[in-house]
Amino acid sequence: MSRVDLYVDFQSDIEMEGFARQAWITRSGSINTYSVRGEFSGYTVGQGGPMSCRLYNKSLEILKSHKTYFVELWKRSGMDPNRMVWRLEFQAVREVLHQLGIQSFKGLMRELGGIWAYATQTWLRLAVPQTGDSNCARWPTHPLWERLAGIQWGTADVPLTRSFSPARIPALDRLFRLYLALLTSFMAKNRLKDKPAQWEFAEGQAEFIKQAQQFHESRCQEHLSISLEDYIAQEVALKARQYNTMRNVSTVKQDAETSDKVNKDATDYYRASRGE
């Protein structure tokens, strides 16, 4: 199996466009909204990733796709044909399915409820933001989401957990080689090569650390609104938790390419999770 899509169609009087960005509590860093000819059409969470979600106006979508047979199916299920139908859909690729312990079609059919529970309770949740409480983990779940998450699939609806291979944790020898590659590149760029090798190496390390610290202190202050010490403590804590639980571990290359905006969001989330 290369991919699995699970979805439910529903009708509600709730204004779907009214959910605040911070109301979506998710492991994904990507949340987007969409509209069609000026009319709000839905959200995507984690688009392009191994797991993603779409909450969108299915009635609006079938006008474009011409899949009008859905209307008859909705009527048979008791839906009002004069009201909008929304779809909540989760997509998981092979990597996620394997991490959830699903290796076969038989296993998939047995664990549909577990996948749905993981998606709606662990991976993504719609909450009701509480004024005066910055810890989003304490925010109550939105009543609509409670109904959607509570849908029974006729299987074991116990949330599954994802496991990750220890091979994803960077080995020390790779980290040491990477550090030396960065250091020698820095030394070559700054022409620190006119002294004996032992002095060149020591001076290169000292200058590299000095300039790196200056860069990160400035970046933390100007873009992340956090001290360098707190940022380092945050990153160490997050990575330690990831390593211990075999959760997704970002690569060194991904860390270097992560934008300041994403890091700022991560910092805000970290503070909120600590109740700050």
What does the model show?
With 276 residues, this protein is α+β, with helices and mostly antiparallel strands. The protein has two domains: 3-149, no CATH class; 166-273, no CATH class. Helices cover 47% and strands 15% of the residues. The strands form two sheets. Strands 1-6-5-4-3 form a five-stranded antiparallel β-sheet. It has a two-stranded antiparallel ribbon with strand order 2-7. β3 and β4 (39-45) form a beta hairpin. It starts with a strand and ends with a helix.
Number of strands: 7
How many domains would you count in the coordinates? 2
Number of helices: 11
The value of Rg in angstroms is 24 Å
Q: What structural class do you assign from the helix and strand content?
A: alpha+beta
Give the helix proportion (percent range).
40-55%
Q: Which percent band covers the strand fraction?
A: 15-25%
Oligomer: single chain
- Cα separation of the termini: 43 Å
User: Please, what is the average pLDDT?
Assistant: 79
Shape: elongated
Largest beta-sheet characterization: 5 strands, antiparallel
Q: What is the topology, as strand order, of the major beta sheet?
A: 1-6-5-4-3
What are the secondary-structure elements, in order, as H or E? EEEEEHHEHHHEHHHHHH
Poorly predicted regions: 245-258
